[in-house]
Amino acid sequence: MTLSPADRLRLWEGALDADPVSRPLALLAAGRSDGARAWHLSIAERDAALIDVYRRVVGERIDGTFDCETCGQAVEVSLDTAALLSGPGPGSLSLALEGYLLTVRPPDSDDLAAAAALPGADARELLAGRMIVASHDGRPVPAAQLPPRVLRSALRAVEDSHPLLEPIITAECPWCGASGGVLLEIGAVLWGHVQADARRLLTEVDALARAYGWSEAEILGLSDRRRATYLELTG
Fold first, then answer.
1. What is the DSSP letter of 42?
2. Which of 44, 115, 123, 133 supports an S-S bond with 162, CB 3.0-4.6 Å?
3. Model confidence at 33, in pLDDT bands (50, 70, 90)?
4. Domain ranges (residues) in the chain
């Protein structure tokens, strides 16, 4: 169900002061009845929920561009949101790799927030420690002490089972034919649309309130078509 203009403004206002890590969660809190539990969703589950909000605000398609790494030209990409919703996969995986037994769960927003202030290597070590429980011959093994190839295999298995952890939109460059892609950050994409939509709605409210003396609630209660027609009439 499409969000009403008033709900879309509340969505914008609720996420306006959030930092980049918490903003996707603020969007969920304002856009979905179950948004309050978003911190405990895996990133894949969180982004599936954000896609649901995107569909209610923007529509069924995600459009964008990326620069071709071969020729530098801008490449347009477009996909249906349904193609991204193949499911977030299981909550955790049980793996046996080279004599190690591992339980690996996908990261959630708490994990990203904890790692956000750390340099790259430290952040990766912290994430691995939070995501992986490992043992060898019945003895616990810290994730930092796992052989690098075992650690890489475990993290790759989680990524493969959760397509939305790193969704890459690919396309062929129409100028040179090279293949390329861009990482879809659905939270940032949704926020860009929410900001633009809020600016448009507030501009319309300001113009119609000045012209007719109507309240914000009365103006937002009009359909998009009627608001546009009244704006035309004001010149």
1. B
2. 44
3. low
4. 5-65+77-85+182-234, 93-161
